[in-house]
Specification:
The protein has six helices and ten strands, in the order βαββαβααββαβαβββ. It has a ten-stranded mixed β-sheet, with helices on both faces. It has about 210 residues and is of the alpha/beta class. Helix content is about 25%, strand content about 20%. The chain is globular.
């Protein structure tokens, strides 16, 4: 049965955030809010967490997982990024964008795209997510909480708790969340390729 944590959207309770971070370090799979929509998250190297996310979402090995990063210093440890791409990403973050980039050796191989050796990264513009990332001290391995055969992610924490009670370990809720996933931009080839149009404005990348 999943634990349910209700936190303030602007001043998340430190003790609660610490409890959730500890559970992630212990192998928990959580559902949590972001600046686009709810996401599933687990510790970076958790094989069990990766497997559970794949099972919940019915994903194959070509799916790009996302490393939710607190800031650029953290992001730069996990992807290769040249100066031009750095400037383009810097101008768009924090925000509702996921960027596909070549993975460094710091990224577990099971997260690499099998052919491209890439991974998704993003820096969210969300108080609760940022608080959790700061407490965790490392990226949170994430994937949009979009269930198979459904067109939109769930938006209510209580609904997620009700429907996924036996497949996630915790639900972190800070009120209404959006329904539109991030805009995905693939920079792995050097130029910006729009993979998915979502919550982030694509105009700057067209």
């Amino acid at each position: 049965m999943a634990k349910y944590f209700d936190v303030h959207p602007e001043n998340p309770q430190r003790r609660t955030i610490s409890t959730v971070a500890d559970s992630i370090r212990s192998g928990a799979l959580i559902a949590y809010p972001t600046d686009s929509c709810f996401a599933l998250g687990c510790q970076l190297g958790s094989r069990d967490g990766i497997g559970r996310i794949r099972s919940i979402r019915n994903l194959d090995d070509r799916h790009h997982f996302t490393l939710m990063c607190e800031n650029f210093a953290q992001l730069g440890q996990f992807v290769h990024i040249d100066n031009d791409v750095f400037r383009a990403i810097k101008a768009a973050t924090p925000g509702s964008y996921t960027f596909i980039l070549p993975a460094t050796k710091e990224v577990p191989r099971q997260l690499w795209h099998p052919k491209k050796k890439t991974v998704g990264v993003r820096i969210p513009d969300h108080v609760v997510t940022q608080a959790l990332l700061a407490e965790l001290g490392e990226p949170l391995l994430s994937s949009t909480l979009l269930l198979p055969d459904e067109e939109e992610p769930m938006t209510q924490g209580w609904e997620i708790k009700e429907r996924l009670d036996h497949v996630v370990d915790a639900v972190l809720d800070s009120g209404d969340c959006g329904t539109e996933p991030t805009t995905v931009i693939d920079f792995s080839g050097g130029d910006a390729e729009i993979v998915r149009r979502g919550a982030g404005d694509v105009a700057r990348f067209e």
